[in-house]
Amino acid sequence: SLSTPADIFKGTIFEFSSGIHFENYSRAWVSSNVSVFFLNSLLYAAVSCAFLILICAPYSYVLQRFNFPGAKVIKTALAATTGVPVIMVIIPLYMIVAQAGLLRAEMTNRIVLIALFVATKIPYTTIFLMAYFETISRSYEEAAAIDGCRPTKTFWRIVFPMAQGGLVTVTIFNFININNISCSPFLCNFKSWSRGANHDNL
What angle do CA 164, 61, 142 make, to 5 degrees? Predict the structure, then answer.
């Protein structure tokens, strides 16, 4: 990245015969729209991670704390889903979205991308948070119930703040993974205004 195209083609990229060219970065940032792609990646990752926490935190809490018909089936399905490579579901999802005509506008493109990122990360995030909620003692919830606190309020006021360590950890993992995904945005986006930073590598 610090060499010239001529040095690259000559195979002398580590000799820096023409000097070190830091201007390559500024040229790529401005003229190649890397800044737009980078901001798009940050937008998709940040919004997707926020939705994942809002969806998976209560979802995993209910699965971990309450016994109800079908809970084991759901847990098994989530575990099985984590073993399915994302690349195996991208093409069918793209065909469904394209046939529905949702790729014609900028906003729908962005919504489809975020929905795709969230959907593919729900199983992993849910299983991760279930394991973390299991480490939190039930005595806090029992004390809250004695004081008349409803389960929903108990979760958001007591359990959710106590799970900050797990929430931050899974958010970091999801942010890195979503920011690095390049295949699904390549399929769903043919416009530069909605493409992420890594999406021109395919």
Answer: 90
What lies within 8 Å, CB to CB, of 189 at 6+ separation is: 103, 109, 113, 195, 199
Residue type, 196: G
* Segment 106-146, tens digit of pLDDT: 788 788 888 888 988 999 999 999 999 999 999 999 999 99
Q: Which of 65, 87, 51, 196 is nearest to 141 (CA)?
A: 65
Question: Rounded to an integer, what distance in angstroms lies between the CA atom of residue 106 and that of residue 22?
Answer: 34
pTM of the model: 0.79
What are the respective helix, strand and coil percentages of the chain, to the nearest 5? 70, 0, 30
Amino acid at 61: Y
| Residue given tokens 């820096």 in the structure block | 16
